[in-house]
Amino acid sequence: MPLAAKSSSSDAGAAVETTPAAVAGATERTICMVETTEQAEAVIIGEQGKASSPAPKPATSSFA
Mind listing the pLDDT tens digit for each residue in 22-34? Predict the structure, then answer.
């Protein structure tokens, strides 16, 4: 289960998505923090990675 900030306010600005592609489709920018190259590749170019988003956003930053 993805982790997200918890808040009692419904307008806190946080949302939970189930795949990196869903995140990329819902945002203008993303930040990816992983430990290995394999993890970065899965998040960015994997089957449900950010690059597979139907509407990729132009500004994406990733760090491994």
Answer: 888 888 788 888 9
The mean predicted confidence, pLDDT, of the chain is: 74
pLDDT value, residue 5: 52
Q: Which range marks the domain in which residue 58 is found?
A: 20-63
Question: Counting beta carbons within 10 angstroms of the beta carbon of residue 23, is it exposed (0 to 12), middle (13 to 18) or buried (19 or more)?
Answer: buried
Is 44 inside a domain boundary?
yes
Tell me which residue of 6, 49, 30 sits closest to 15, measured CA to CA: 6
The reply to whether the predicted model has a pTM over 0.70 is no
Domain membership of residue 14 (yes or no) is no
